[in-house]
């Protein structure tokens, strides 16, 4: 299974990579399949069935609306976030859906179904059906397996969740293998990742695409710092990034730029800005998920803002090293909150950010691995219990806390020599086992933890 840095970092749309980006991609793939088989003109009706975690928090995460946009041929990285609500409302009101070159009837109550049961293989399952004029039904089941990754039923049944069989020059399936390869070649983590990426594209293209991802993250932060008001969804959560930014910019206020406390507040600001944009359904970079999308940009913004020697080359190194850790988490555990809880999302992102920061600060491969391990170890057991099924409480603040934790993890690792008691592989394996033992109500269903205790209190 070959995974690229650009699989771990994808431009998309909020509020959830598993529940918004994934369903939109699945529906768009379904429509492409209809076109490829020459069936589009024969379709009289389509039906979407969302199961398990997609059903439990589907409305709050916009899974139903994202699926509808995918059926209209939209993709997460191309769709205009501002156009989603009016276009979906228009379909619901008119009862008509444009599928390819022609329109069909679409009854929202009948054709968009949220079903309170789970399909095999993964909690985020969905089945799409196209009823044809000749009486036949074209059916496909998809699983949104975290971070915007989508597999069909055949892939899920085979256990091969990635169809890319590219042979990498320095493939690794554990952190121990990664460190051994770095030792054998004398390369840093980011250098080794660069050599693997060159299998798919030139170094110039890699650097250009990383720059595009970084620019998207910067725009997300800027937009998050400029917006005010109440986040959608009914919880009446107020945006805080705008006011915090104004306070930090005021000369003479406590914690101005230059102090340790100020640096921490800027990190908080960047993370809050991103995750408020995510909660509002804005343009995002999945890193490696949307629920944890504020951690990596917050840490990288921190480095770029407070290090006068920071450069574009550092951005590339950061993303490559961070991706190496994300790949290990995905291969050996999960980055899906519906599968292992928030430890798979925030925990993985914290480990990735710690690794990226350590890399650009000149860490050895062993110190990079140590930083990632510290970041992940101290998020083990973290549950996914979003209040109201929305990626707002506790998700927004959680990103800020984990971003600061990632910086601390990198600093602690750099103070050591790379030797430590618990390895990254041990931490990832523990995350996997803890996720398997975790009750389903703590896995992005909003049926446990804060999601219910807030209401009860």
Name its key features.
21 helices, 11% strand, two-stranded antiparallel ribbon, 457 residues, alpha+beta, five-stranded mixed β-sheet
List the helices and strands and how they pair.
Layout: H1 5-8, E1 10-13, H2 17-36, E2 43-51, H3 52-56, H4 58-61, H5 63-71, H6 81-94, E3 96-99, E4 102-105, H7 108-111, E5 112-115, E6 125-132, E7 137-146, E8 149-152, H8 153-158, H9 175-185, H10 189-197, H11 203-226, H12 241-249, H13 260-279, E9 283-286, H14 295-306, H15 312-332, H16 337-340, H17 346-360, H18 365-377, H19 395-414, H20 424-437, H21 450-456
Parallel strand pairs: 2-5
Antiparallel strand pairs: 1-9, 2-6, 3-4, 6-7, 7-8
Helix pairs in contact: 2-5, 5-6, 10-15, 11-13, 11-15, 12-13, 13-14, 13-19, 14-17, 14-19, 15-17, 17-18, 17-19, 18-19, 18-20
How would you characterize the overall build of this protein?
α11 packs across α13, α12 runs antiparallel to α13 (260-279) and α13 packs across α19. β3 and β4 (102-105) form a beta hairpin. The chain is globular, with a radius of gyration of 22 Å. The chain has a 5-stranded mixed sheet with strand order 5-2-6-7-8. The protein has a two-stranded antiparallel ribbon with strand order 1-9. It has helices spanning 5-8, 17-36, 52-56, 58-61, 63-71, 81-94, 108-111, 153-158, 175-185, 189-197, 203-226, 241-249, 260-279, 295-306, 312-332, 337-340, 346-360, 365-377, 395-414, 424-437, 450-456; strands at residues 10-13, 43-51, 96-99, 102-105, 112-115, 125-132, 137-146, 149-152, 283-286. It has 21 helices and 9 strands. The longest helix has 24 residues, at 203-226. It has 457 residues and is of the alpha+beta class.
